Amino acid sequence: MTQTAGRRKAAPAPQGSPVTTYYLLAAATTILILIGLAVVLSSSSIASIRSTGGNPWALFLVQFAALVVGLAALILGSRMPIKWWKRMTPLAFYGSLVLLVMVALAGVAVGGNRNWIRIAGFSLQPSELAKLGLALFLGLVLSQMRHQLTSLKAALVPGGIAVAAVLGLVLLGHDMGTAIVIAMIAAGAYWVAGLPARFFGLAGIVGALGAVVLLFQGESRTARINVWLADTCDAQADCMQQTQGLYSLASGGLWGLGPGQSRGKWGYLPASDNDYIFAIVGEEWGLIGTLMILIAFGMILVAVMRLVHRHRDPFVQITSAALGAWIVGQAFINIAVVLGLLPVFGVPLPLVSSGGSSLIASLAALGVLMAFARREPGAQEAFAARPSMIKRSIAVVSRGRRG
């Protein structure tokens, strides 16, 4: 993605179909949801049996309920006009901040990270909602002041303060993986808004120093880095997750062992239904399944780039870049961890891993992107000119009867 919104001269008329962006998003979302449902059902079944005493469907039903909520958010959100999203931005951002404060005050720790709250018997991870709120907020404020981003003050107020607030609250819960994704969201938004490169260099130095401090403050973080850098380690202890993840991927071959046939899910591979679900995809669906995942995220990346380059509204351009950095960037981190290219960060694979909060937030974000795609220059006219599938079917049947 290039710096387009901040200082761009009149661009030539966009080429190609204006509805391609929308269909790319719809197709990619469908692929990821279907694969995710199948693999979550398989990988969570053993853990469900152990936790419930015999019910293999328990965790999957929770995921399915989250999918229903997330699809409702996607469908409704994709139908909303851009002006509506601009009006909803303050509510989305400040509401997520309030929830993050609640986590800091009375959060529940899971896996060493305090990033959950319980409301009316349900668990919620506000940091997932904060990703969406921050992306919208940065899109709104940076689009209004993109021509003033040559000064440090304009870069920090109010966008930089918002990023710092979200990062600070997330790091209070020791969730470094989510903090990295938040930083990627900010980088995507500021890059497309036109922030000068020297400020990215400064932010990179500050971020690197902060990361070093945080790494040495947590024993688990230091241990993960040491395991990742070590030439050899115990495959049954420190390296178990990394080793078993690679074993699962390798055992799938080209076509995989078949749906539900994973061996890693039987307790050999920790976090098989969330952080390491990509390994289960490779084991059960083989290289073909993993390539389908990569192609789907590639389709989302192409769709985001089309929105950045083809749309005329700076709010849409900047917000799309932020949302794309979140979804595609987080997918890259998750897959790189499974492949052993990065140390374990504990971030899920969007739309595929189990986790209700992540699934709902990711689907809501795609709903925003689809709303933008529906209002790409020329898209509304193109949609209006195409009869619906139902109308086409009725017309075909009617002609057949008359014939």
TrEMBL record:
Give the membrane topology: Multi-pass membrane protein
Q: Where in the cell is it found?
A: Membrane
Could you tell me which InterPro entries the record lists for this protein?
Cell_cycle_FtsW-rel_CS, FtsW/RodA
* Biological or metabolic pathway of the protein: Cell wall biogenesis; peptidoglycan biosynthesis
Write out the catalysed reaction: [GlcNAc-(1->4)-Mur2Ac(oyl-L-Ala-gamma-D-Glu-L-Lys-D-Ala-D-Ala)](n)-di-trans,octa-cis-undecaprenyl diphosphate + beta-D-GlcNAc-(1->4)-Mur2Ac(oyl-L-Ala-gamma-D-Glu-L-Lys-D-Ala-D-Ala)-di-trans,octa-cis-undecaprenyl diphosphate = [GlcNAc-(1->4)-Mur2Ac(oyl-L-Ala-gamma-D-Glu-L-Lys-D-Ala-D-Ala)](n+1)-di-trans,octa-cis-undecaprenyl diphosphate + di-trans,octa-cis-undecaprenyl diphosphate + H(+)
Any keyword Metal-binding?
no
**What keywords is this UniProt entry annotated with?**
Cell shape, Glycosyltransferase, Membrane, Peptidoglycan synthesis, Transferase, Transmembrane, Transmembrane helix
Q: Which domain of life is it from?
A: Bacteria
Q: Which PROSITE patterns match?
A: FTSW_RODA_SPOVE (PS00428)
Q: Which Pfam families match?
A: FTSW_RODA_SPOVE
EC code: 2.4.99.28
Q: Where are the transmembrane segments?
A: 21-45, 57-79, 91-110, 116-142, 154-171, 177-193, 200-218, 285-308, 320-345, 351-373
What job does the chain carry out? Peptidoglycan polymerase that is essential for cell division.
Q: Into which family does the record put it? A: Belongs to the SEDS family. FtsW subfamily.
Q: What is this protein called?
A: Probable peptidoglycan glycosyltransferase FtsW
* Organism annotation: Demequina zhanjiangensis
